[in-house]
Amino acid sequence: MSTTFSRRSTSYTRRTDELRLHTLHRKHIYAFRQVTSTHSRHSLILPRCILSCIIVLLSAAEANAQTSDSTNVVRLIAVGDVNLGRFVGQQILKGDTTYPFVFVADTFKQYDIVFANLESTLSDQKGETQHPRNNLIFTGPPTGARSLAHGGVTVVSTANNHAIDYGVKSQRETIRYLSESGIAFAGTALNPDDLAKPVIISRNGIDIAFFACTAIMNRTGNEWKQYVCFADTALLLPKIRVYRDSVDFIVVSYHGGDEYSERQNARTEAFAHAIVNGGADLFLGHHPHVPHGIESINGKYIVYSLGNFVFRQPQHYWTQRSFAFVAEIRKQRGATRLDSFRCLPVMTGFQPAFATDSLEAKGILEHVAQLSDPSVALDILR
Known about the structure:
This protein is of the alpha/beta class. The protein has two domains: 11-69, no CATH class; 72-355, Metallo-dependent phosphatases (Purple Acid Phosphatase, chain A, domain 2, 4-Layer Sandwich), CATH 3.60.21.10. It has helices at 11-40, 48-69, 86-93, 105-108, 144-151, 167-180, 233-244, 266-277, 358-371, 374-381, and strands at 3-5, 71-82, 113-118, 121-122, 130-131, 134-140, 155-157, 184-186, 199-203, 206-214, 249-255, 282-286, 294-297, 300-303, 308-310, 321-332, 335-347, 353-354. Strands 2, 3, 7, 8, 15, 16, 17 and 18 form an eight-stranded mixed sheet that branches. α1 packs across α2 and α9 packs antiparallel against α10 (374-381). The model is unreliable at 7-46 (pLDDT under 50).
């Protein structure tokens, strides 16, 4: 079954609702006093119980009318690859769980949902966070889940080529530690039948389903597809159709493409188009480790690659720079859409930070705009 995460309403909202209902009640009482006063002059008296029922019904109708015209908004921020292994993992093991997100946590607090691609497992390897003979195999420690929580991360994709770097046991541990820390995740599951099911997050009256999948794995053969959701339209599109009418907004996270390439490859583009045309509202790509462009299709958005975030790769210029995708999701009169977006320039590394140098920030946004659909270029540059 899919998992739903929700946030309690504030006392302020409850008090406002109570005052509104009290006002409605007084208004309708006054109206029906006028009615009964008029009718009493003609010897027609409504029984008190019927009058009370009518007042309740009219109050509910007016409240529903106000609700249907109300607007709900969710602010989502999505970032790229987060590797809590290697050097970062060692810092976390020393007790500094705030280390990876120390410069971005305050910004994350401004958003209702924070999404990231968790590029490492979280497992107990007796102090090891990188394989001694292969630096492409790594894991974050169990307390890496606390780092995500302390940093303000809400939901992660666990479907990527590092999902079972230290075996299936490490993948199971990752699920356990994320769950214990209250971090929502999609793309892996204890039951193979649940791999393609989304996690559903509810914020401000809007239900958002997050799917996650990967096209690649650091393993040969197909056995890994029993543990990690494979990027297959035959698998995902039926699931998207199932959830389309029960949620307000659908996000699909995709891990694939060519590393360090400037643009998406044909396979990624075809897959993204199929997913968006099949019912998803937002497509978030990662794996290339560099930023790619953005495309809009009938009001739905494709972010081909969010690049790195908590990931240090100093060998390339664009592995050290990327962006966060900020979306305002609006629900009004029963319809939900991505109303607007903007891009926040990022300096990536062990401790990423949002770019404060104006020239650096401008250069990142101009690069992303150049790689994007012309129809969204101005939105990127604003």
